[in-house]
Amino acid sequence: MADRVGWGIVGYGWVARDYMAPGIRAAGHRLVAICDPGEASRRAAEAEGARAHADLAGLLAEPEVEAVYVATPNHLHRGAVEVLSAAGKAVLCEKPMAASLADAEAMAAAVRGSGIFYGTAFDQRHHPGHRAMRAAIEAGRLGTVTAVRIVYACWLDRAWTSFQGQDNWRIDPAQAGGGALIDLAPHGLDLVDFLVGDSVTDIAALTQAKAQDYAVDDGALLVGRTGSGVLASLHVAYNCPDILPRRRLEVLGTRGQLTAIDTMGQVAGGSVTFTDGVTGAVEALPFDLQASPFLEQVRAFGSALRRPEERAAYSAERDLHTMRLIARAYGHAGARAA
Ligand SMILES: NC(=O)c1ccc[n+]([C@@H]2O[C@H](COP(=O)([O-])OP(=O)(O)OC[C@H]3O[C@@H](n4cnc5c(N)ncnc54)[C@H](O)[C@@H]3O)[C@@H](O)[C@H]2O)c1
């Protein structure tokens, strides 16, 4: 039986329209209302049966909204989360948590002060393939886990747009907070935590501005180590043609390796294999190929909203730590460009 949560959305752009709204529907929840200053975004929401407001005050006045998904450009996450915290709403805020570490610190303080239920929308935690990987690791199939290796890349040029006429804020340092590194690496750093149950504590990185003609980094290599000594490597990029192999996640242990291909992202599917460290035999790991990470994310957040004992899986402090890692990877706390 679905928990049928009443959702509001702040920022009804690409990710909200194409992934979150379908996830809300598929979970049997209800999109009550959105707010967005963009006329086209409001019309799109109304076509889905939601009420549309030009500002957050209108959304807050909707009594049926229990949980709010924040999906504005990064620099606007802070203002929305502060207002929603003060109003006592449950919040699921898109990644990166904010465009700057200072904003993320203010958001964590607002969440702490208000005691609201807050989660950052790390949908990839909820990909059924990644859940199957974590279960295999917990069952000891890899032996001692030694390393996580991630490639997560795409093509994002100056002209890239999610919808016709939509601003490409991702290449503006002030709105995005950085480039490929701040956009894509939080997913990988969070997945390391999710898969091996241990956060990255040491980090170093190199960025590049090599193939695109804008002010933010178009690629980065990060190396990290968790508190228990698991090594992590991440290659993230905005300069990799989408047709090339570009989404790969490997977890290596003393008894075997898990390899996920095309699971990182917003959609269902991809593949996960286990390679035995003694025989070399390769076996497919079964998981639900139909359920998208956004559907599963909606189900999990709604379930935790109804059952507070499940909220331990969410932590604004953990997400703030991820933002600290991003700031350190850029070389200083407020880093913006390559
Ligand atoms: N988890 C994922 O896989 C994933 C994927 C894409 C984007 N994202 C994140 O989601 C967020 C949105 O990204 P996008 O690609 O959907 O952007 P987008 O540009 O397509 O949409 C942003 C929307 O926010 C609206 N907006 C601007 N100012 C606003 C305000 N003050 N109040 C309310 N709405 C406002 C815009 O009009 C637009 O409709 C970003 O933080 C991004 O990093 C996450």
Task: Describe the structure in brief.
The protein is α/β, with parallel strands linked by helices and 338 residues long.
Task: Describe this structure as you would to a colleague.
It is a single chain. The protein folds into two domains: 137 residues, Rossmann fold, CATH 3.40.50.720; 177 residues, Dihydrodipicolinate Reductase, domain 2 (2-Layer Sandwich). Helix content is 33%, strand content 24%. It has ten helices and 14 strands. The strands form two sheets. An eight-stranded mixed beta sheet has the order 8-9-10-7-11-12-13-14, with helices on one face. It has a six-stranded parallel beta sheet with strand order 3-2-1-4-5-6, sandwiched between helices. Helix 1 crosses helix 9. Nicotinamide-adenine-dinucleotide binds next to helix 1.
Which helices and strands, and how do they pair?
Blueprint: E1 6-10, H1 14-26, E2 30-35, H2 39-47, E3 51-53, H3 56-60, E4 67-70, H4 77-86, E5 90-93, H5 101-114, E6 118-120, H6 128-138, E7 145-153, H7 173-176, H8 180-196, E8 200-208, E9 219-226, E10 231-237, E11 247-253, E12 256-261, E13 271-276, E14 282-284, H9 293-306, H10 316-330
Parallel strand pairs: 1-2, 1-4, 2-3, 4-5, 5-6, 7-10
Antiparallel strand pairs: 7-11, 8-9, 9-10, 11-12, 12-13, 13-14
The site of nicotinamide-adenine-dinucleotide has 26 residues, from α1.
Keywords: Oxidoreductase
Organism: Methylobacterium soli
Domain Gfo/Idh/MocA-like oxidoreductase N-terminal: 6-115
